[in-house]
Design goal:
Elements (H helix, E strand, L loop, with lengths): L2 E6 L4 H12 L3 E6 L2 H8 L6 E5 L5 H14 L3 E7 L14 H29 L2 E6 L12 H21 L4 E8 L14 H11 L11 H12 L10 E4 L7
Parallel strand pairs: 1-2, 1-4, 2-3, 4-5, 5-6, 6-7
């Protein structure tokens, strides 16, 4: 039975790069996101095989149905879950409505919680598994204009370590990657024209000790390391992949 990994938010950015990284290393990948067309483009780059799971992680009924189909089929041995799907919104304290806060937690935390809850019995039955949560350096040291996002990502960091304690006796590992500023569609600068983007990225250089922002591929390599057997004695780890920005 071929080893497999589920990657959420796999249609672009870190999720797409992570799916491709796992596929390069022989994993069949389940690609979960809302945009089916973009998932098909990613699937075409996954040489080890891919299956598209078109789903919104906030649609509980649809998510549970998709997960049940995946887990009961038992076509592949799913060894890794990478919870990458997320949204980002800036706002002041006064502008942070209940709707904004609930949406951030629904996508960034509760979606992953539901996925892991479904996978725990499966991992226990097969004698182990690996969970990789993609948080953020803002979950370690928040900024003033992104409190709901930062809080949701801080909760993910704490939850990851709780999972590590709960899963350890069952050989279920849980680890967390905290990316810094990465050039992905979640950031508004990603969509600027080339000239404006170059200017913006130049200004950002001084924020990181390594002098540049990161790439999705660099974060993907960390997500692969923590999910695969390369980190077989690692659980509860919080790995910053951020060019050193968390130190400044």
């Amino acid at each position: 039975m071929k080893k497999a990994a589920l990657i959420t938010g796999a249609s672009s950015g870190i999720g797409a790069a992570t799916a491709i990284e796992y596929a390069k290393n022989g994993y069949f990948v389940y690609l979960m996101a809302r945009n089916k067309e973009r998932l098909q483009e990613v699937a075409a780059q996954c040489r080890s095989g891919a299956s598209i799971v078109s789903c919104d992680v906030t649609d509980v009924a649809a998510l549970n149905k998709r997960l049940d189909e995946m887990l009961t089929a038992k076509i592949h041995r799913i060894e890794v879950v990478v919870n990458n799907a997320g949204i980002y919104q800036t706002h002041s304290t006064e502008e942070g409505t209940d709707e904004i806060w609930m949406k951030q937690f629904e996508v960034n935390l509760l979606g992953p919680v539901r996925i892991v809850r479904a996978f725990f019995p499966y991992f226990k039955e097969q004698g182990g598994g690996s969970i990789v949560n993609i948080s953020s350096t803002l979950g370690l040291r928040p900024g003033g204009s992104n409190s709901s996002y930062s809080a949701s990502k801080a909760a993910m960091v704490n939850w990851t370590q709780s999972l590590a304690l709960d899963g350890g006796p069952h050989k279920i590992r849980a680890n967390c990657v905290c990316p810094g500023i990465v050039d992905t569609p979640i950031h508004s600068f990603h969509h600027l024209d080339s000239e404006q983007k170059t200017i913006t990225l130049e200004k950002m250089k001084s924020l990181q000790p390594l002098g540049r922002i990161g790439t999705a591929e660099e974060v993907a390599k960390a997500a692969y390391f923590l999910g695969s057997d390369l980190s077989s004695w690692t659980t509860g780890a919080i790995l910053s992949v951020d060019g050193g920005i968390n130190l400044t």
